[in-house]
Amino acid sequence: MTAREGQKRECPEGERRWMLVAGASQGIGRATVRLLLKEGYSVVASARGVEPLEELAREYAGGKVGPELGPAHKDRLKILPCDFAQIEKLQDYVSNVADLTGGISGMLYAAGMQKTLPLTQSKFPLAEEIFRVNTFAAFELIRLFAKKGAYRPEGASFVLLSSMAAHEGALGKALYGAAKGALEGFIPAASAELVMKKIRMNGLVLGVVQTGMSMQFIEKMSEDQKKALQAEYPLGLGEPEDAAQFVAYLLSEKARWITGQTFTLDGGHSVRTTYSERM
Ligand SMILES: NC(=O)c1ccc[n+]([C@@H]2O[C@H](COP(=O)([O-])OP(=O)(O)OC[C@H]3O[C@@H](n4cnc5c(N)ncnc54)[C@H](OP(=O)(O)O)[C@@H]3O)[C@@H](O)[C@H]2O)c1
Fold this sequence. Notes:
The chain is α/β, with parallel strands linked by helices and about 280 residues long. It contains nine helices and seven strands; from the N terminus they run αβαβαβαβαβαβαααβ.
């Protein structure tokens, strides 16, 4: 087998490649944890909500996610609650992860929040809150995990999640769009340094994915508004698994040649027809 063929394998039994999912209790993060476990990785799952993380652990223990718990698998999911907005505590968190895992092979940063408010009411404390969890915590985790001992010596892969709100008019989402745009701006320059350490980093720009976050505003819509939103997505609104599949690919060795890029996953939203002409 050539070295390259060897890298194409799924994570083999017992190899203990640890992936960290930040924002694992719900939505895209949770779907990614499930998929990574099924693919044979070991996973550290973090968020603030202890109960949903424990529920995920119970699902795993019950064999619904990944293989049944057995001697070879019983330690493959670690729950490590953390409030990523407390940036000053992230050094301790990263040390704990490094102790647990011996160094991670990848991280999805899926922790995020958004509040829809008119620009004139979007005061500085809200800007700080939004940037802390969506942006600054991601920068700080990447800085800390790029240090020796925090990631595996053979390399690692980091994935960040941005939003269409950084690219198109989205009423009430100026701060959220700015926080996500900053993540995208971070990727090329930071990747230039990370690649020298054998760390890859990529971003996804997501259209509307049906999770707790998007349901907050979808549920407030009238039936006509919901129809109009659906019409903007020729392939339908996204499911958490649609994003998780691509995240798992970017985290894996199959994406060994890809870094510094930002990919759009939007169910055809960007290429939809906005006016109709008979053909
Ligand atoms: N859904 C979409 O349509 C969409 C579109 C574009 C981009 N995105 C981005 O994709 C990412 C995942 O979104 P989602 O839709 O899956 O959202 P979600 O269902 O609301 O999940 C967000 C996750 O972030 C965690 N989180 C929030 N604040 C945190 C904090 N201070 N510390 C630790 N964890 C925190 C939440 O857990 P706890 O509350 O338990 O802490 C939860 O696990 C976000 O960055 C979001 O901006 C989503």
